[in-house]
């Protein structure tokens, strides 16, 4: 089993920055690629960014503003979010990319961008 714990969310003004962290533990040898996802109220959960080796993928809405990175030694994936907009407000989660198991979802971390 894999355990994922997200942190780093908070309240920020529009144009500000946050860095999210996702620490993995458990059967992490199963993980080849990781992703950050978000879910806004009343909307479906969506992929924000994914990383596999040196390859990254971003949703169009965050390209040029968000950067995903991974520290394998620390079993941690990061999401650097710059130039935040009100529409980035959501609960952010990490999971494998693609999602292999819904059981891996953590509690998420809330990001609120005040305009």
Please give a handful of descriptors for the protein shown.
globular; 4-stranded antiparallel β-sheet; 115 residues; 6-stranded mixed β-sheet; mainly beta
Explain what this protein looks like in three dimensions:
It is a single chain. The protein has 115 residues and is mainly β. Helix content is 0%, strand content 54%. It contains no helices and 10 strands. The chain has strands spanning 2-7, 10-13, 18-26, 33-39, 46-52, 55-58, 66-71, 76-81, 90-96, 109-114. The strands form 2 sheets. The protein has a 6-stranded mixed β-sheet, with no helix packed on it. A 4-stranded antiparallel β-sheet has the order 1-3-8-7, with no helix packed on it. The radius of gyration is 13 Å and the shape is globular. The model has no long low-confidence stretch (mean pLDDT 94).
Biggest sheet: strand arrangement: 2-10-9-4-5-6
Gyration radius over CA: 13 Å
Tally of individual helices: 0
* Poorly predicted segments: none
Main beta sheet, described? 6 strands, mixed
Considering DSSP H and I runs of 4 or more, what fraction of the residues is helical?
under 10%
Strand content: over 45%
Number of strands: 10
Shape: globular
Mean pLDDT: 94
**Class by alpha and beta content:** mainly beta
**H and E order:** EEEEEEEEEE
Q: Tell me the span between the first and last alpha carbons.
A: 40 Å
């Amino acid at each position: 089993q894999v355990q994922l714990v997200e942190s780093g969310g908070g309240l920020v003004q529009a144009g500000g920055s946050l860095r999210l962290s996702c620490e993995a533990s458990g059967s992490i040898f199963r993980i080849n690629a990781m992703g950050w996802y978000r879910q806004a109220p009343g909307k479906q959960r969506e992929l924000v960014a994914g990383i596999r080796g040196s390859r990254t993928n971003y949703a169009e809405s965050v390209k040029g503003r968000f950067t995903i990175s991974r520290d394998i030694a620390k079993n941690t994936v990061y999401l650097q979010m710059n130039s935040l907009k009100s529409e980035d407000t959501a609960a952010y989660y990490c999971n494998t990319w693609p999602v292999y198991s819904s059981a891996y979802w953590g509690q998420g971390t809330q990001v609120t961008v005040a305009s």
